[in-house]
ATP-binding cassette domain-containing protein
Amino acid sequence: MGQNDNVISCKNVWKVFGDHPERLTGHLKPETTSEELRATGHVAAVRNVSLDIARGEMLVVMGLSGSGKSTLIRCLARLIDITDGAITVEGRDLGTMTETELIDLRRRKMGMVFQSFGLLPHRTALENVAFPLEMRGQDRISRIARASEMLNLVGLGGREGYFPRELSGGQQQRVGIARSLAVEPDIWFLDEPFSALDPLIRREMQDEFLRLKGMLAKTIVFITHDFDEALRLADRIAIMKDGAIEQIDTPERIVMAPATPYVAKFTSAVDRARVVHAGALALAVEGRAIDGPALPAIETLHALARRILQDDRALIPVAGRDGVVTGLIDRAAALDLLLGPAA
Ligand SMILES: Nc1ncnc2c1ncn2[C@@H]1O[C@H](COP(=O)(O)OP(=O)(O)OP(=O)(O)O)[C@@H](O)[C@H]1O
């Protein structure tokens, strides 16, 4: 991944709702407070957000209800105009694109899945998935072929002729996912796509999603309220509060090196052992030679729990994929993380 291979870049992006947000364009500063905005009848749903999303990256956006997640994603897809700042997609400024160019960008490059499935009730699963291809003017035979392929991909082969009412919530969501994938988007926006699903189906959908993610290598922005879901899926997590991004970082750093007290509080209930990899906890070797088996650096402490419990060395070596020892884990510190500090 090249350093400048950013698919999406935001620079000082604001989205303000209220009486006359257009009057604020060009006048918003990082230090502009919510109180100042409120006094003029405005609220900043997105506040001075700058971020880059790399090609193939999966960015998960988290935050309490009302923190601005959906508004941010809608700005990125330019479903709504921003009040200030700039967003570029593959190097092109969204603000200067014509309506026709935008429609083309959304149809050809972007896919979106929202919490409500938004399926057409009088069309079958197959027709629903083929619908965006029809909008694009694709011929019937090729769109039906593509739609069946996508339904197979999400595990709904054989249900092409079902109507949405004949499918479960999870199956309807899969149809929604197949529909958004049919147009082969490079960039995929998902706004709490699994929140309406019961926990078992949700887990199944996450597995399915991880499989698709591995196969399709898309750039993905995914909103969720569920930290476990974020940990399973994210390359990086952005934590939002009052429209601003408090921290954008790897899951491991969000949990182990929170940038603000808010992030620390937000992540306080997360089981660190499921996030921290052996490599991250390892201390420098500093010339000490430790014989015997080493723990794989890429595994989480949770995955290594049994081995750490059974290994009675005070310092346990950690090795990279090539088997070379890269550091030592203090067993007592690892046990503290796994079991909580000794009473
Ligand atoms: N069309 C609108 N007009 C006025 N205010 C809005 C509008 N859309 C959003 N807001 C406000 O912007 C803020 C952010 O809303 P947004 O829906 O982006 O939050 P969210 O983090 O996605 O919340 P949730 O998790 O509940 O979906 C909220 O205070 C909301 O009331």
Q: What stands out?
A: The pocket of adenosine-5'-triphosphate is lined by residues 17, 43, 45, 63, 65-71 (CB under 6 Å). The mean pLDDT is 88.
